[in-house]
Specification:
The protein is an alpha+beta fold and about 190 residues long. The protein contains six helices and twelve strands. Helices cover about 25% and strands about 30% of the residues. Strands 3-6-7-8-9-10 form a six-stranded mixed sheet. The radius of gyration is 17 Å and the shape is globular. It starts with 12 loop residues before the first helix and ends with a helix.
């Protein structure tokens, strides 16, 4: 009887990079491919505003922000594209700006869309926690609410919920304080 070699049905990042550019964005969850739908305009505006806030913080702290789709390669089979990420100055040297990012960010941010909310609050949040992202924000552009979660004991605990009239304070990034109204401006 001949032995049959089992193949791994998962898709890895190396394979994903070989796919033709079809205009879609993809994420990998333990090798399972998920198509990320394009965001609606309000989503993009809120993400841009967050990027601007973090760009100012970058200039004062020496960290680095990315507010465009960027692959964060947590493992060969776990690759996510957060809406915005930030790396502290102390870890900036770990990044190769000419390669995919293989370092967990210090802050990952997702701006909710109807089609991604369950994943952003579920599988994506769990993946960020599993790979040690210290702070995670979920931003609701419809309700104008920013939720902050802090990593503790391997999972996220709520650290604050901020409406458009509140002052946002990061629990892990010293000096990151701003008015939420900036994020939700038209």
């Amino acid at each position: 009887m001949a032995l049959v070699k089992a193949t791994d049905p998962r898709v890895g990042f190396a394979e994903l990079k070989q796919w033709p550019d079809d205009g879609r964005r993809y994420e990998l969850y333990d090798g399972e491919v998920t198509v990320v739908p394009l965001p609606f305009p309000r989503h993009q505006r809120v993400a841009q505003h967050i990027g601007q806030v973090l760009l100012e913080y970058e200039r004062t702290t020496g960290g680095i922000v990315f507010s465009v789709p960027i692959d964060i390669v947590f493992s060969p089979f776990d690759v996510l594209q957060p809406d915005v990420v930030f790396f502290r100055k102390e870890r900036r040297h770990l990044l190769d700006l000419m390669q995919a990012t293989e370092v967990p960010p210090d802050l990952a941010i997702e701006v909710l869309s109807r089609s991604t909310e369950a994943r952003d609050r579920g599988r994506k949040m769990e993946t960020f926690a599993r790979f040690g992202v210290p702070e995670y924000w979920i931003v609701d552009p419809v309700r104008n609410v920013l939720e902050i979660y802090e990593l503790r004991d391997g999972g996220y605990l709520p650290a604050g919920v901020f409406g458009e009239h509140d002052r946002v304070v990061s629990p892990t990034l010293p000096g990151l304080v701003f008015d939420a109204a900036r994020v939700f401006a038209e």
